[in-house]
Input
Amino acid sequence: MASASAVIDIPASADQVWQLVGGFNSLPDWLPMIVKSEAGEGGRLRRLQTEDGTVIVERLEGFDNAGKTYCYSITEGPFPVTDYLATLLVEAHGDASRVTWSGRFTPAGISEAEAQALFQGVYQGGLDALRANFSR
Output
């Protein structure tokens, strides 16, 4: 099983950051590449659509509002991996926040290094977009 992660510091309180990212269906609010998110199964499923029309379906596997974290799996999507499980975590870091986005997965048809690079890019790009929401 392979893994990837990205970490970023954001000049806002953990509560402010969690307010934006903590809703499982809130990706379009902070991640520009996701243009639409439709909730299903009482909010435990999200059907995402990217700018180019790609559909990704993700299932909420765990949620801890007090701990400012959730984890999710991908049930449908274009990624060459299986057994995908990712976690988004917001922590207080002084008078700012530290956000960690990490995942583990089994590569399918690509090398472990290629899968790690793919998700490292997704996570880092997503966190950079998140930070941009707080530097306007």
About this structure: The two ends are 38 Å apart (CA to CA). The chain is about 25% helix and 50% strand.
